């Protein structure tokens, strides 16, 4: 097993064990939307997404699709400024609420993936038939 594989396994375990996953805006000029968000959804962890539209090079909201589908994520303008409030809100939830939220996140993501796959198939078929 390589170090990369070991690190990835540790990362997946850490996200699986976490009720929240921090998804900071990139310092490298890429989009706010990242794999981190989808990895968290798939493992039942709520992404805490730092919104930084200034880094979006496409001119639109990189989180628009997730927002349109009512994704169960926490959106903050600044992790530095708002993380304390996020953690305070988290600490007020009991275990049953956190378990229910994890199930909601996993179910939402499964439905979202199914919807996106169906939509992709419809568009593809429409273009093939023309």
From TrEMBL:
GO BP terms: protein O-linked glycosylation via mannose
Residues in coiled coil: none
Cross-referenced InterPro entries: RXYLT1-like, RXYLT1_C
One Pfam family of this chain: RXYLT1_C
Superkingdom assignment: Eukaryota
Residues in RXYLT1 C-terminal domain copies: 8-126
Molecular-function annotations in GO: ribitol beta-1,4-xylosyltransferase activity
Protein name per UniProt: RXYLT1 C-terminal domain-containing protein
